[in-house]
Amino acid sequence: MAIRWSSDFVVAEYRELKAKTISLDSSGNYLFIPGKTQLAIKNLNQPIEEISTFPKSSKQEPGAAAWNPHTANADLLALASGIQVELLTWKNNAELCTSKLLKSHTRVITSLNWHPLDPNLLATTSLDTFTFIWDIRESKKPAISLSSFAAATHVKWNKISRHLLATTHGGDVKIWDERKTSSPVQYVSAHLTSIHCLDWSMMKENNFCTASQDGTIKFFDLSYPRRTESVINTEVPVWRACYTPFGRGMLVVIIPTSRKIENSLLLWNLANNSIPLHTFVGHSEIVLDFQWRYFQQDGSDYQLITWSKDQTLRIWEVDKYLQELCGPGNNDLDIDCVDFASETTKETSLTVPDSIKKRFDSIVIEKEPSQRITDDDSDTINEDINLKISSQDILENSQPVDLNSLVKSSTVTAVAPVNLQQEFSANIIIPNVKIVKTDIIRRMCCATAKCNNQVISLLINFPPSYPRNKGPIFRFAQGTSVSNAVRFKILEALRDTADFKVKNNQACLEACLRTLIMTMQQLTSNESEKINLFTDDKLTTLGSNQEAAFLPARTCGAKFCYIGKLVCFAKPMSQLQLSDKNICGLVSLSNRQTEALQRLYLRKNGALPPRTKDMIRRGLLKQMQNTRHNKRTVLIYDVSSLFFLNKELALKYTLSGPDITDICRHNAQVAASVGRKDLQQIWNLVLTSVKSVGQACNGSIDWDCHPLAKQMLQSIIFFYISQSDIQTAASLCCIFRQYLCKSSIQSFKPSKTTSIISKTPSGSPYHNILPNEPSNETAWSYPMRKHIRCNSWSDLYEDIRSSNSIEHAEVVETSELSSISNTYLKDEDNEWLFDRIKQAYADILYRWQLLSVRASVLKCVKASTSEKHKGLEFKAECKQCKSSNFENMCPTCKIPSLYCVICRLSVKGLAYVCLYCGHGGHLAHMKKWYETESCCPVGCKCQCSMSVELISN
Amino acid sequence: MVSILNTIETGHEDIIHDAEMDYYGLRLATCSSDQSVKIYNLKNGTQLIADLKGHYGPVWQIAWAHPKYGNLLASCSYDRKVIIWKENNEWQKFYEYTNHDSSVNSVAWAPHEFGLILACGSLDGTISVITYTPETNSWESKRIIGAHSSGCNSVSWCPATPSLASLNTSVNVNRSAQTKRLASGGCDNLIKIWKEEGDQWIEETKIEVHSDWVRDVAWAPSVGLTKNLIASCSQDHRVVVSSSDDFVNWKSTVLNTFDDVVWSVSWSLTANILAVSGADNKVSLWKVDTEGQWVCISDVIKGQGEISN
Predict the structure, then answer these.
(1) What CA–CA distances, in Å, run from A310 to A13, A292, A586, A616, B308?
(2) Which residues sit opposite B139 in a β-bridge?
C-alpha cells in the first residue's frame, strides 16, 4: 500500500486566471502564472491572497512559460504566445514589461526551455517542425536551427552535458548536439503514442525518461538507445513525469480516465516501479504544472508548488521523511538501478550479509515460487530489508550499493528462482509451435509457428536481467511469411504478454509462444476478428518512427453533392467552446489512441492541458441539456434555388417534335407553370423568331434566309451557358440542333443524293474519319470527322450536312475563303460546345433518374463520346453496294441487311446471328430452333450452339 | 431559399472529417476520427445501412465512384491505408491499398470516362494513381514519388471533357482522347498540375500562390466554362482561383482572405458556385458577379443551421 496522508499545504484559488502553466524564478520567491487574459506574478513570501496582475500584450493565448533559472538573468521570463516568444523583464520586483520578441517560428510554439548552464540560451520547439536555440543577446534570429520533419512538442536541455538537448515528436525522441545541427545524434523510438513529457536525469548524463499517452513512463540510457531501461506502468495516460531534485524519486501527473482514479499527483521511488510511494491528495482536478521550491536556509526542505485545472495553487511541504523514502540522493550513491540489476546477474560479485540471506530464505519458504507476490507484500519486504541493510551500508564502504536497488533485486531473487536454463529445458508443448534452437550462452532461442499456410520464425533474446521486470526482445527471422502489418501486431501482443509476466518476475517464454500462435491464428484467419482484437486499446498500425508532420485535422467542411445539395459538417458548437480553451473535449470519449492523435492535432493553438474524462462527460451532459447541437451531425442543405436546374421543367419540357413552334409554345407554358416567367419570355421570344423565319422563307424554316435569327439564338444559348443554366441552354440546343449549324436540312435536300455519291469516294459514310476533301485548289481543309460509329439519325444527318457544306464552300469566292473558314471552325467549336452542354445536361438527368428524357437529349448529341464497344461486333454487308453497316437497312441502297434463315423474311427487330457461321434471323425463330437443335438451320454443318464457346475461347 | 433538407445524427464517436452524397443523392457517406466510415440511406428519413470498420486511424476523406462501376466508396486514413468498399448485397472491403508510408490525406476518383481510377495523396509526399482492370479483376498502381516534398494534402482530377479554351490552342487534338490530368496541393505551399504521358505521370507545371500549406484543391467541372479553373485554399487563410487556357500558364486571383485557416473548397456541379469552409467552423458560398468579381452570396453558420445573406 502506498502511504497516503495529507501534507500541510496552502491553497489559493485564482479562478479568473485560466492559466495552464506556472514558472518559478531562480530565487524561489516569485511564481509566474500566465493567464488567458492577464499575466500574474505571485510573491510566495506574501500572504496567499496577494497577487499582482499585468495586462497581456498579445492577443494570443499564452503557451509555455519559463523563468530564467540563472541568477544572472533572474529577472527574465520567456513566454510563448502563438508563434512568437515574448521575453519579459520583471523589473524591481514590481513591474513586468516586454523586452524582446523572438520571432521565427511559423507555427504555434509548443515548448521552451532555458539552458540550465548558460543563462543566455533558450530552446524553443514548434509545430513548424523546427527547434530553435536562441541567444537572447542577439534576438533577431535564432542562433541555431534544428530541422526535423515532424512537429516538435517538447524540448529539454540535458542537465549535465551542456551541448545535448532532447526534442519529442509524437512518440519519438530526438537527441541533438548543438554543435552538430544537421541531424540528431540519437533517435529513440520511445512510444507508440504521443509523449507528453520528457525529463533528463539530474544524476546521469545519458539518462532520461519519457511520459506518454500510452500509460507508461519509460527510462532510457543514451548508450543503449534501442533499449528501454525500465518502465513504470500507470495504466492511464501520463501527463508529466519529472525527476525529483532529491533522492531517486519521480513526480508523476497522470490523466485519470475514470472517476475511480481521483488523484493525479503521484510520487514514485524509482527503485520500485510497481507502486507509487506517495499520493498528493487535494486537487479536485488534474494538475497542469508543478514546480519545486528549494529552501536554502534550511538546506534540504522542498516545497512542491502545483497548479491545477481547477485554477488553484497549492503549496505542499515535502518533509524529510518523504524525501528519504525516495532513496538516497545523488551525493551518496551513484549506481543506477538498472546497471545494478545487470551486475547482480553475476551473483558472485555481491556479498550479501547472512542476516539478509536468512531473510531471503525465509521468504522463499514462506512463498511458493509461482505465487504472485502482491504489492503489499513487496512493500513490507521493502521496509523490512531497508531496516536491516541500513547498518550494513556502513560496513561496506568499499562497495557502494544502492540500497533500494539491492532490496529490489533481493526480492526478485527471492520470488523468481526460475532461470533461463530451466525455462529452456522445460518441455513446452504447444500445437503448431516448435522451439528450433536454444542457446543458453547467448541467452536466445528460436521458435517457429505454422498456421493457415503462414510461417513465423521468431528469435527471442533474453536480456541478462530477465525475467526481473525486463522482458525478452522479439525479432522475426528469415522465413517469416506474414505481412508487416501482421508482424507488427504480433510483436505488440508478444510484448504485452511478456511485460505482464515479467512485471511479476515470472518466466514468459511459454506464455509468449502461446500468444504467438493464438494471435497468428486470429490474424491470418479472419479480417473481422482482427478488428475486435486490436482496435480496443492499442494503436496497432501506426509506426512510431514515421516522420509525420501533424496536420490539424479538418473538422468542418462543405461539399456540393448531387444536384443543388450542400453537405456540411462541423464541430458542434459545444465543442467549439471547448476548443476555445484549447481542449478537444470530445476526444476523451473515444478510445485512447484517437485521443492521442486528436490532442496532437488540436495542439496547433498551443500547449493544452488534458481534460479528465469524467469532467468532459459532466460538461457534455450539461451542454446536452442546454443545447441541441451537441451531436455529430451532418446537415444537408437544399441550395438548389441557387442553381437554374429544375426537375419539373426537365420532366415537362418537350425537346423534339414535328413542329418547332408547338414545342416552343409548350415549353413556354411549362416555364410559366413552374413560375419561371423569365424562361417563359425566352421561349416566346424564340417562338416569335421561328415564326418570323418561317414567314421570311415562305413557310419552311430556313434560318439562312433570316439575317438575325440564328445569331440571336446562339447568343441566347451562350448567355445561358455563361449563367451556368445548363438546362435552358441544353434544351434550346436540342430543339434547334439542326439550325444552329451552318446550313439546314431543308435547303440541302434537293442535292442530297448527288452530293453524297460524288463527294465521298470511299462510298460509305461509315468510316471513322472522312478524308479531307481537297474540293478546290486552296489549302483550306475542313477537319471533317465522325468520331465513333453510331446509329443515331443525327449521325447520318451530320454526314449529309458536312458534304453539303463542302458543296457550299465551292460556291464561295476564293477571296472570301479565309473568313469563311474561320466561321466554320467556330461553328464546329460551337457545335462541340453545344454537345458538351447536352451531355452535361444528360448527366444531370441521369442523376435525377429521368432516363427517357436523358435518352432524348443524348439523341441530339452528334459526336458520341461514349465508350467504344469492346469485343465482337456484328455488321451487315449490303448485297448491292457491299458496304457494311449496323442498320437493318443499307442507308444508301435501302435494301434490308438481314434476312431470316428460317422464315426468309427481312429482319427489322431483334435478331440473332451465329457468330461463327454468320447465319441467323429473327430472335424468336432462332431461339425456337436452338431449343431442339444444336447445328445451324441452313445446314452448313456449323455447331452453332457450341460456337459461342469456341469464339470466346 | 436555402433550407436544411436533412439533419443526420451520425452517431460517430469522434469528429467527422468528410461527408459526401452519392451520384444519385440517395446515400450519404461520412468518415470520422473514430476510425469508421458510415453510410446512410437518405430515402424516407435516414437509415444507417453500413458501418464500415477496417481503418486503424482517423479516416480523413471518402469518395464515391461513378455508379456505372457499381456502388464503390474509397476511404483514406491516418493508418496509411486506402480502402475501397463495394456493395454486393452488403458492404465489404473490395480492395486495400497499403503502399503509402504515411497518413493518406486525400482520395479522388478520376472522371468515369477514363475508367475506374483512384488518385491518393499522402503525407509521405507521394501521389498514387491506382487503376482497376476489370478483365483481370486487379488493381495496378503508379506512384508519383516526391510529388510534394513534405506531404500532399489534396488531389483533384481535371474533368474528362476539356474546356473550350484548351481546344482552341490545339484544334487538331483528338477531342475524345483527353489527357488525364491531376491537380495536387501540399505542404510545400505549391499546387502542382500532373499529366499522364505514356505510362508516366509528369509534372506539367506548378502554381506558386500560397505562402503556407495548401489544404485543398478543387478542379472545376468544365461544363460551360471557357477556361480551366482550379480553386485552392491554404493555411495562409486565402482562397485562390487559378485559371488557364493551356494547363501551363495559370493566372491566379485571390478570392478572399479569411479570418482563419481555410480547410476545404468545393465546386458546384455547374461550376458557378464555390463553397469554402475553414477552421472558423463557417461555410460561405461564392459566386462571380456580373463584373467578374467573386462575391460571397451566403454564410452558413454551422451548428446553428442559419444562413445569412
Answers:
(1) 8, 20, 19, 14, 39
(2) B132
Answer whether B102 touches A (CB < 8 Å).
Answer: yes
Q: What is the ipTM of this complex?
A: 0.92
Residues of B with CB below 8 A from A534's CB? 56
The structure's pTM equals 0.50
Side by side, the strands of the sheet bearing B82-88 are B59-64, B72-77, B82-88, B90-97
Q: Do B224 and A556 touch (CB under 8 A)?
A: no
Asked whether the predicted pLDDT for residue A20 surpasses 60, the reply is yes
- Per-residue pLDDT band for A800 (boundaries 50, 70, 90) equals very low
Site from B7, B15, B83 to mutate, A interface, most A CB atoms within 10 angstroms? B15
Please answer yes or no on whether B223 and A568 come within 8 Å at the CB atom: no
Give Cα B257 distance to the centre of its chain.
21
Q: Residue A473, SS3?
A: strand
Q: Does B159 touch chain A (CB under 8 A)?
A: no
Vertex A812 angle, CA A808 and A817, to 5°: 110
Question: Of the given ranges (A534-548, A668-682, B212-226, B251-265), which has the lowest mean pLDDT?
Answer: A534-548
Among partner residues A558, A560, A787, which is closest to B176 by beta-carbon distance?
A787
**Please, which residues 38-77 of chain B have a Cβ atom closer than 8 Å to chain A?**
42, 53-54, 56-58, 60
Distance CA A509, CA A500 (A): 12
Which tens digits make up the pLDDT trace of A390-409?
434 433 443 433 434 433 33
| pLDDT at A372 exceeding the cut of 80 | no
DSSP E strand boundaries for A462-599: 473-476, 557-561, 565-569
Contacts of A549 in chain B (CB under 8 A): 123, 150-151, 187
Q: B300 and B3 in contact (C-beta within 8 Å)?
A: no
What is the structure's pLDDT at B300? 52
Q: From the CA atom positions of chain B, what is the Rg in Å?
A: 19
Poorest-pLDDT segment among A371-385, A473-487, A763-777, B77-91:
A763-777
